[in-house]
Amino acid sequence: MNITYIPTPINTSDIELSSELKQLTEQMARNVHDIWALGRFNDGWTYGLERNDNLKKHPCLVDYDELPESEKEYDRNTAIETLKLILKLGWKIEKK
Hints:
CATH architecture of the domain at 28-88: Orthogonal Bundle
Largest sheet: 2 strands, parallel
Number of strands: 2
Distance between the termini: 49 Å
Strand order of the largest sheet: 1-2
Strand content: under 5%
Shape: globular
CATH class of the domain at 28-88: Mainly Alpha
Order of helices and strands: HEEH
CATH topology of the domain at 28-88: Globin-like
Radius of gyration: 16 Å
């Protein structure tokens, strides 16, 4: 199989999040982590000091607050880019 994958995400660099949506990103990042962790746990993974795919151990299977800043930043970026994409596609996000 000779498949060349070239990621082509929608450019959201022209979208600026409001201060309210910026505050929402931390809650979204926490939820992104929890969804990822729940999926791992459901697949039989447990916490381990080092990642080991054979033993299904992962050091990030901890509460969001215990994650290294680099991992939190990964989850935040997912949340930010999701919100920016929604706005870029013409949707409106407002709090009830």
